[in-house]
Design brief:
With 187 residues, the protein is of the alpha+beta class. The chain is built from 6 helices and 6 strands; from the N terminus they run E-E-H-E-E-H-E-H-H-H-E-H. It has helices spanning 47-54, 77-87, 103-114, 118-131, 147-159, 177-186; strands spanning 5-14, 21-31, 62-67, 70-71, 88-91, 165-168.
Length: 187
Amino acid sequence: MQYALEVADLTKTYGSGHTAVTAVDGASFTVAENEFIALVGPSGSGKTTLLSMIGGLLTPTSGSVLIGGTDVSSLSRRRLTSFRAEKVGFVFQAYNLVPFLTARENLTMMASIAGLDRGTVEDRADELLRELGLTERRGNLPEELSGGERQRVAIGRALVTDPDLILVDEPTASLDSERGAQVVELL
Protein backbone atom coordinates (compact mmCIF):
# COMPACT_ATOMS: atom_id res chain seq x y z
CA MET A 1 0.00 0.00 0.00
CA GLN A 2 1.31 3.44 -0.91
CA TYR A 3 0.64 6.08 1.71
CA ALA A 4 0.15 9.80 1.20
CA LEU A 5 2.92 10.29 3.77
CA GLU A 6 5.53 7.98 5.26
CA VAL A 7 7.83 9.25 7.99
CA ALA A 8 10.56 6.82 9.05
CA ASP A 9 12.86 7.32 12.04
CA LEU A 10 12.99 11.09 11.49
CA THR A 11 15.40 12.96 13.75
CA LYS A 12 16.52 16.58 13.92
CA THR A 13 19.40 17.58 16.16
CA TYR A 14 20.72 21.11 16.45
CA GLY A 15 24.34 21.59 17.46
CA SER A 16 26.72 18.84 18.52
CA GLY A 17 28.43 17.38 21.53
CA HIS A 18 27.21 18.26 25.00
CA THR A 19 25.30 21.31 23.67
CA ALA A 20 23.29 19.28 21.12
CA VAL A 21 19.52 19.61 21.30
CA THR A 22 17.35 16.97 19.70
CA ALA A 23 14.10 18.60 18.61
CA VAL A 24 12.64 15.46 16.99
CA ASP A 25 13.83 12.00 17.98
CA GLY A 26 13.03 9.03 15.74
CA ALA A 27 9.49 9.93 14.64
CA SER A 28 7.82 7.25 12.51
CA PHE A 29 4.26 7.12 11.21
CA THR A 30 2.18 6.82 8.05
CA VAL A 31 -0.80 8.79 6.80
CA ALA A 32 -3.27 7.29 4.34
CA GLU A 33 -4.92 9.25 1.53
CA ASN A 34 -7.76 11.47 2.80
CA GLU A 35 -6.68 10.90 6.40
CA PHE A 36 -6.73 13.85 8.79
CA ILE A 37 -4.33 13.65 11.72
CA ALA A 38 -3.32 16.08 14.44
CA LEU A 39 0.00 16.35 16.21
CA VAL A 40 -0.49 17.48 19.77
CA GLY A 41 2.01 18.38 22.43
CA PRO A 42 3.25 21.24 24.54
CA SER A 43 5.01 24.28 23.12
CA GLY A 44 8.60 23.41 22.27
CA SER A 45 7.95 19.69 21.78
CA GLY A 46 9.08 19.68 18.12
CA LYS A 47 5.77 19.82 16.23
CA THR A 48 6.80 22.73 13.97
CA THR A 49 10.24 21.18 13.39
CA LEU A 50 8.60 17.89 12.40
CA LEU A 51 6.20 19.63 10.00
CA SER A 52 9.09 21.61 8.48
CA MET A 53 11.06 18.41 7.82
CA ILE A 54 8.02 16.67 6.34
CA GLY A 55 7.49 19.59 3.96
CA GLY A 56 11.14 19.71 2.92
CA LEU A 57 11.81 23.09 4.52
CA LEU A 58 14.32 21.62 6.99
CA THR A 59 16.78 18.82 6.35
CA PRO A 60 16.54 16.01 8.89
CA THR A 61 19.63 14.82 10.72
CA SER A 62 18.51 11.27 9.91
CA GLY A 63 15.48 9.37 8.70
CA SER A 64 13.28 9.75 5.65
CA VAL A 65 10.09 11.38 4.41
CA LEU A 66 8.12 9.99 1.48
CA ILE A 67 5.22 11.99 0.07
CA GLY A 68 3.15 9.93 -2.34
CA GLY A 69 6.10 7.56 -2.66
CA THR A 70 8.62 10.31 -3.48
CA ASP A 71 11.61 10.58 -1.16
CA VAL A 72 11.70 14.30 -0.39
CA SER A 73 15.35 14.22 0.71
CA SER A 74 16.47 12.82 -2.65
CA LEU A 75 15.18 15.83 -4.62
CA SER A 76 17.45 18.64 -5.84
CA ARG A 77 16.70 22.11 -4.45
CA ARG A 78 15.03 23.15 -7.72
CA ARG A 79 12.91 19.99 -7.96
CA LEU A 80 12.02 20.22 -4.26
CA THR A 81 10.67 23.76 -4.77
CA SER A 82 8.41 22.70 -7.64
CA PHE A 83 7.43 19.47 -5.82
CA ARG A 84 6.33 21.47 -2.78
CA ALA A 85 4.37 23.92 -4.94
CA GLU A 86 2.56 21.07 -6.70
CA LYS A 87 2.13 18.51 -3.93
CA VAL A 88 2.28 20.21 -0.52
CA GLY A 89 0.16 22.99 0.95
CA PHE A 90 1.53 24.85 3.97
CA VAL A 91 -0.24 26.93 6.58
CA PHE A 92 2.33 28.51 8.89
CA GLN A 93 1.77 30.02 12.34
CA ALA A 94 3.18 33.34 11.09
CA TYR A 95 1.08 33.31 7.87
CA ASN A 96 4.13 34.02 5.60
CA LEU A 97 2.05 36.06 3.16
CA VAL A 98 3.84 38.15 0.53
CA PRO A 99 3.36 41.70 1.90
CA PHE A 100 3.11 43.49 -1.46
CA LEU A 101 0.51 41.09 -2.94
CA THR A 102 -3.23 41.30 -2.35
CA ALA A 103 -5.12 38.50 -0.64
CA ARG A 104 -6.16 37.09 -4.03
CA GLU A 105 -2.65 37.44 -5.48
CA ASN A 106 -1.23 35.55 -2.49
CA LEU A 107 -3.43 32.65 -3.55
CA THR A 108 -2.85 32.89 -7.31
CA MET A 109 0.94 33.24 -7.08
CA MET A 110 1.03 29.50 -6.42
CA ALA A 111 -0.15 28.95 -10.02
CA SER A 112 3.07 30.27 -11.52
CA ILE A 113 5.27 28.36 -9.06
CA ALA A 114 3.39 25.10 -9.62
CA GLY A 115 3.03 25.63 -13.37
CA LEU A 116 -0.74 25.24 -13.25
CA ASP A 117 -3.30 26.79 -15.57
CA ARG A 118 -3.71 30.34 -14.33
CA GLY A 119 -7.41 30.61 -15.20
CA THR A 120 -8.27 27.46 -13.28
CA VAL A 121 -6.30 28.62 -10.25
CA GLU A 122 -7.90 32.08 -10.37
CA ASP A 123 -11.36 30.46 -10.35
CA ARG A 124 -10.30 28.22 -7.46
CA ALA A 125 -8.86 31.22 -5.57
CA ASP A 126 -12.13 33.14 -5.92
CA GLU A 127 -14.08 30.09 -4.72
CA LEU A 128 -11.82 29.68 -1.68
CA LEU A 129 -11.95 33.38 -0.81
CA ARG A 130 -15.74 33.13 -0.88
CA GLU A 131 -15.76 29.99 1.30
CA LEU A 132 -13.38 31.66 3.75
CA GLY A 133 -15.53 34.80 3.95
CA LEU A 134 -12.91 36.99 2.27
CA THR A 135 -14.55 38.03 -1.00
CA GLU A 136 -14.77 41.66 0.13
CA ARG A 137 -11.11 41.59 1.25
CA ARG A 138 -9.60 39.96 -1.85
CA GLY A 139 -7.96 43.22 -3.01
CA ASN A 140 -6.43 44.06 0.36
CA LEU A 141 -2.74 43.76 1.22
CA PRO A 142 -1.83 41.62 4.26
CA GLU A 143 -1.14 44.70 6.40
CA GLU A 144 -4.75 45.76 5.79
CA LEU A 145 -6.13 42.46 7.11
CA SER A 146 -6.78 41.32 10.67
CA GLY A 147 -4.84 38.37 12.08
CA GLY A 148 -7.78 36.06 11.48
CA GLU A 149 -8.16 37.28 7.89
CA ARG A 150 -4.44 36.74 7.25
CA GLN A 151 -4.75 33.22 8.63
CA ARG A 152 -7.67 32.50 6.29
CA VAL A 153 -5.70 33.84 3.30
CA ALA A 154 -2.82 31.53 4.29
CA ILE A 155 -5.26 28.61 4.45
CA GLY A 156 -6.64 29.51 1.01
CA ARG A 157 -3.11 29.69 -0.38
CA ALA A 158 -2.41 26.18 0.95
CA LEU A 159 -5.55 24.79 -0.68
CA VAL A 160 -5.57 26.62 -4.02
CA THR A 161 -3.45 24.09 -5.94
CA ASP A 162 -5.39 21.14 -4.47
CA PRO A 163 -2.20 19.58 -3.07
CA ASP A 164 -1.78 15.92 -2.13
CA LEU A 165 -0.66 16.84 1.40
CA ILE A 166 -1.60 19.82 3.56
CA LEU A 167 0.58 20.69 6.54
CA VAL A 168 -0.88 23.14 9.03
CA ASP A 169 0.71 24.62 12.11
CA GLU A 170 -1.98 25.88 14.50
CA PRO A 171 -4.42 26.81 11.71
CA THR A 172 -7.13 28.14 13.98
CA ALA A 173 -5.02 29.96 16.61
CA SER A 174 -6.12 33.45 15.53
CA LEU A 175 -9.69 32.58 14.59
CA ASP A 176 -12.89 32.75 16.60
CA SER A 177 -14.54 29.40 17.36
CA GLU A 178 -17.10 29.66 14.52
CA ARG A 179 -14.44 30.46 11.87
CA GLY A 180 -12.13 27.86 13.41
CA ALA A 181 -14.74 25.14 13.00
CA GLN A 182 -15.38 26.31 9.40
CA VAL A 183 -11.66 26.13 8.59
CA VAL A 184 -11.26 22.66 10.09
CA GLU A 185 -14.25 21.48 8.03
CA LEU A 186 -12.76 23.02 4.88
CA LEU A 187 -9.40 21.33 5.50
